[in-house]
Amino acid sequence: MSKNLFASGHTACAGCGQSLGARLVIDAAGPNTIVVNNTGCLEVFSTKYPETAWEVPWIHSLFENAAAVASGVESALKFMGTKDTINVIAQAGDGGTADIGLQALSGMLERNHDILYVCYDNEAYMNTGIQRSGLTPFDTNTTTSPIGSQSLGNIRPKKPLPEIAAAHGVPYVATASVAFPNDVQRKVKKALSIKGAKYLQIHVPCPLGWRHESGATIQVAKAAFETGLYPLVEFEFGKVVAVRQIQPKPVEEYLKLQGRFKHLMNNPEEIKKIQAIADANIEKYGLKA
Amino acid sequence: MREFLEGSRAIAEIVKRCKPGVISAYPITPQTHIVEELAQFVADGELKSQFVNVESEHSAASVVLGGVAAGVRSYTATSSQGLFYMMEVLFNIAGLRLPLVMTCANRAVSAPINIWNDHQDSISLRDSGWIQLFAEDIQEAADFHVLGYKLSEDHSIMLPVMVCMDGFILTHGIETVDMPVQEDVDKFLPAYRPLYKLDPAKPVTMGVLADPECYMETRYAIQETMKKVLDKIPVLTGEFSRVFGRAYNGLVEQYHTKDADRVIVAMGSVCGTVKEVVDELRAKGKKVGLLKITAYRPFPAQKVFDALKDIPKVAVLDRSLSLGSYAPVASEIKAVFCGKKKGPKVISSFIAGLGGRDITKDSVRQIFSLLTSKEVSCEFIDLKPELLKEKYE
Known about the structure:
Chain A has about 290 residues and is an alpha/beta fold. Chain A has helices at about 15-30, 40-45, 65-80, 95-100, 100-110, 160-165, 180-195, 205-210, 215-225, 250-255, 270-285, and strands spanning about 35, 60, 85-95, 115-120, 145-150, 150, 170-175, 200-205, 235, 240-245.
């Protein structure tokens, strides 16, 4: 076993799903990889001067431009004739991807650069203190979608980003979860074996933001998948080609594990709405085994 | 070789001879002709570059950031709103100490929307860490790109260069330009040799988090380098003149200032008009002159001091504003003489040519006539009083 390309000693919280995801991705990609990172938790906890956790060439520019900076890196490698031997990965959180970075991401996908874009989806702006993003689920209690006498949390369901990415007609789009490390690494390797633009969205629980025990990260991620709230799907050229099937569990099994949904526990009407989101996913992708 | 060329064509031709491997741009008037020409060169196989058509100026700047970070000379061009949309990326490029050259086709800023020339776009980016060179004519604009890459990529500098050229007046104007031949460009500007780059064979981390323990030193370092740029530019213009046969000071140009009692300070294409008026007034025995500022960043304070210290009356012509305060160039000139024993008795400040209003020879004559012992600040030239009377009802 060679050394980890994402070294230990960084300052992520205990149980951080994103740091686990990032390690799985880069170790699957291997040392011949250049990483472009948006601003966010991952950048902050892995590269505080004078330390770095990265054993591969790595650059951070701004919050929203990793897809564009990576497009420049990839173009430079093409110009030098070395693109075929070097992977380019752009990576960001859900806010940096689905909200402020969506335009740059769409441009990268449309131009079909030979880049793997990885979104670590922990479903809110965790680095700035748990504000809601476009990938925050319905009824989630965050600091900018707080519960109150007039509020049950975030008013909209998650933006369908994998579908938006797939609609660009790129060769490969997939969702994954840190609950299934081998599946994450299989998808990274598959993506990197394909030329063109690839999008991988990985569900990465955040114990601090989701308010669960730091030891429960894998359990929580698994529950999201098992309830149908986080479907694991692969698209090729805009079409679904594979899904990971489930024996669906009721959504309470997932919601009850997390403080961010605690306010729903005595509200069967709201839970019904969330169950309907899961049921729609199960129906849409044929998740039921 | 002397050619009769549109400014944009000259810029595209000279950028081609600088051989950037990555070009990225988003269309905005009056920058478009430059990037259209470059796209055609690539389409015709005359230029072996990756031409990346992006969805915004923010991404155009980000693409060239990535290109040069990976070790390849890169180029972009923009204007006005586009420059503003790039703004955070431009600060980032300078902070990352990445060498680049971009063309800014100077244009007014909205609202109201206006596609014509003034300097508000570039001037508003003066604190970004970019070296800013203002061109008087198409020849200068073209030459400053070659000079700009050489300066930017110098391992003792490693700061980006913005070549500022007046929109339409220079980008769409046609002049005879002595276009450098490829062999001379190659002689002056060797292939890009990165000081650091993203390379799996030698991994580096770029764009780290700098906390209060180390951030300030990074800003100090740029400030110190800007001082070095002031020494470096004359060295490189000397080298440039040996290869290309054209001599520039590169910081300021003095035009009949030595014995003058009245001098206009200006930047960009208006300097040509001022020179004509100076010639006419000189022919009538008036002791007038022009001090052209070429380098706005870094600001050549010592050169300005030396040029103006014995001039009794100085008029500063600004084509932009710092709304609510002194005009940008005027405040720099005043700062040069603050607390000094020597210096002009009067430094008057004039605003002209905003949003493309022509600065005619009459406008320049008016500035000279208003340059009296009574100092004025932000005096607008060529205002239309009838428009100021309009009311919203």
